[in-house]
Design a protein that fits this description.
The protein is mainly α and 412 residues long. It contains 19 helices and no strands. Helix 2 (32-53) packs across helix 3 (59-77), helix 12 (271-287) packs across helix 13 (292-305) and helix 15 (331-345) runs antiparallel to helix 16 (347-355).
């Protein structure tokens, strides 16, 4: 045992190793509920023992051993798990090797199994996100509920239904075979992308940025990249997160209000994350034909490399968006392309590009009328700009974005 004690030690260890701990328990028992209960009881035991005995030299090994013992006790009390108990006894000696080393024994397969189980295509996207945050990020049900602005009982029911679906459909806890990986990996990446997007630009609430979600999605993306280093899009997704999140400190001012890209203090951008992200996207682009995350990361890199908006390579950004719209058609990407056209060719050209978009597909998406309002404002068409801003204000749910749009509206 190591000497010294800090109250945060258990939480820090559990947060860092939660996915590994849960993955090994799920691998053995094939039951998420049992694994979660055993993991929670192991942490409770750590809270009691570590202040007295000190933090173990290898905390994860201690937690795994304790969780196994707690599982044995629970299974013995419940005859319905008799068969699982027999299996557990047969495999128990191999759960935590005597020479367990967390730096060497990185148990990648177990965590990959959990990634692909949480993001199985048989589950709804909402359920995939909930399970990923609950199981791999280690967030509590109440934290997951807050992340997506739903009541805790609603989120609890969603998680329970997802677990039941896994059990009823006999969804296996395994990494897909090589011939399945290409079809399944995009779902995993998409869930992480949605979590990061919600964190970087919260869809509702008082905060523009949800740092808890951006950091968790970054942490999970790092794990996935480490486990699948040859998958170009896994590399690209991590690059995208790093390059975009590097601007976080400049996106809000001292009062917490949104600052547009044009007026951000770029000296506040995180140079280390920009450098790491740029290296990753270069490596990804060198390997294969670029996928949607590689193209988005390349666009983010061009923004990060520019000294200001005026010297940004907008022609290259437009070209990348055009390719992105072919590789991954999306009305949001089309909107972003139109904005980039405006920056390259002027507001009138940008407005013409906006007029070509599918209005119905963007009807409830407030950045669409906001972009129209901005271009109309730049063209001096104040009354039309005001109408567009009013539409955007009716749609926006985030308070910081609402304040920003109100300020633009008032400037008219």
């Amino acid at each position: 045992m190591t000497s010294g004690w800090a109250f945060g030690s258990v939480e820090d260890v559990f947060r860092e190793d939660h996915g590994r701990l849960l993955a090994m328990l799920v691998r053995q028992f094939g039951d998420l509920d049992l694994a979660e209960e055993a993991a929670s009881e192991a942490v409770e035991a750590a809270l009691q023992r570590w202040p007295v005995d000190g933090v173990p030299k290898v905390p994860l090994a201690w937690l795994l051993t304790t969780a196994r013992r707690k599982s044995v006790d629970r299974l013995r009390r419940d005859s319905a798990y008799a068969a699982r108990l027999a299996i557990m006894h047969a495999e128990a000696e191999h759960l935590v090797p005597a020479t367990f080393n967390p730096d060497i024994d990185d148990i990648p397969d177990e965590r990959l199994r959990l990634f692909f189980t949480c993001c199985h295509p048989a589950l709804s996207t909402e359920a995939q996100i909930a399970l990923t945050l609950r199981c791999l990020a280690g967030l509590s049900t109440s934290q997951v509920a807050r992340a997506f602005l739903v009541a805790e009982p609603t989120m609890a029911q969603r998680i329970v239904r997802a677990k039941r679906k896994i059990s009823a459909a006999r969804i296996p806890f395994r990494v897909p075979e090589a011939n399945e990986l290409a079809a399944r990996l995009p779902g995993v990446l998409h869930v992480l992308y949605l979590i990061f997007t919600e964190g970087y630009a919260a869809s509702a609430g008082a905060d523009l940025v949800r740092v808890d979600l951006t950091e968790e999605s970054l942490r999970l993306a790092r794990i996935l990249h480490r486990l699948l280093p040859d998958e170009s899009e896994a590399t690209s997704l991590l690059a995208l997160f790093l390059l975009v999140d590097a601007r976080r400190a400049a996106r809000i001012d001292a009062t917490g209000e949104l600052v547009s890209l044009e007026f951000q203090d770029r000296t506040l951008w995180d140079a280390a994350r920009m450098s790491e992200g740029s290296a990753l996207v270069v490596a990804a682009l060198d390997r294969h034909s670029p996928g949607p995350y590689a193209l988005q990361a390349a666009i983010a890199a061009l923004h990060d490399e520019a000294a200001d908006v005026a010297t940004t390579d907008w022609a290259q950004i437009v070209a990348l968006y055009e390719l992105l719209c072919v590789v991954s058609p999306s009305p949001v990407f089309e909107l972003n392309r139109a904005v980039a056209v405006a920056m390259r060719d002027g507001p009138e050209a940008g407005l013409a590009a906006l007029d070509e978009l599918d209005v119905d597909a963007l009807r409830d998406y407030h950045p669409f009328p906001a972009a129209r309002g901005d271009l109309l404002r730049r063209l001096g068409r104040a009354s039309e700009a005001a109408a567009a801003y009013r539409t955007a204000l009716d749609l926006v749910q985030n308070e910081r974005e609402r304040t920003f749009l109100r300020r633009r509206f008032a400037e008219l």
